[in-house]
Specification:
This protein starts with a helix and ends with a helix. α1 crosses α2, α2 crosses α4 and α3 packs across α4. Helix content is 70%, strand content 0%. It is globular. The chain contains 8 helices and no strands. The protein has 2 domains: 85 residues, RNA polymerase sigma factor, region 2, helix turn helix motif (Rna Polymerase Sigma Factor, Chain: A, Orthogonal Bundle); 82 residues, Arc Repressor Mutant, subunit A (Orthogonal Bundle). It is mainly α.
């Protein structure tokens, strides 16, 4: 079934289309959630919540980007909401252990929206590599193939994004402590 037919069927609440969409994108969404939790039931709950959001909002999909990317964003929002309900922090979304700010509580006080705003400040190419690596879970080979760049360029963009985010976090912490 082609994507347009699948989407139109989901909008019409056709259970066969919903099942086909779920089966097509479940493995990628499952892998993304399993990167943040080792609890299979918790991951399944998050994925299912994300797909429920997708089915409810399918009428808003405008064919401006990939369907998988659109679903991935909705599942990621379900993931962030799940962990926010568990503790109002983002300890689960690590840049990398060596990238942690000196004050260990700096990241934990940021809400998802704050972090996403900081990510938006990163230049587009580095931001896209960071998103593909840190959020979607792709490796540098997959990122390079998707973006038509070399693996080395992908690694550079990721490093650049991390350095910028570290600086932004440090600045945010300085402003918070000054106020």
């Amino acid at each position: 079934m082609d994507e347009r037919t699948l989407i139109e069927g989901c909008i019409a609440n056709d259970r066969r289309c919903q099942e086909a969409l779920y089966r097509r994108f479940f493995p990628a969404m499952w892998r993304m959630c399993m990167r943040y939790t080792s609890d299979r039931e918790e991951a399944l709950s998050i994925v299912n919540d994300g797909f429920l959001r997708a089915f409810k909002k399918m009428h808003t999909f405008g064919f401006r980007g990939s369907l998988e990317g659109w679903i991935r964003r909705l599942v990621f929002h379900s993931l962030s909401d799940h962990f926010r309900r568990k503790g109002n922090d983002l300890h689960w979304l690590k840049l990398e252990d060596r990238d942690r700010p000196r004050r260990s509580d700096a990241l934990s006080r940021l809400y998802l929206e704050d972090l996403m705003q900081l990510i938006e400040e990163v230049p587009p190419a580095s931001r896209e590599v960071f998103r593909l690596y840190a959020i979607e879970g792709l490796n540098h080979r997959e990122i390079a193939a998707r973006l038509g760049i070399s693996e080395g360029t992908s690694k550079w963009h990721l490093s650049n994004a991390r350095k910028m985010l570290q600086r932004f976090l440090k600045e945010a912490e300085t402003v918070k402590n000054a106020g």
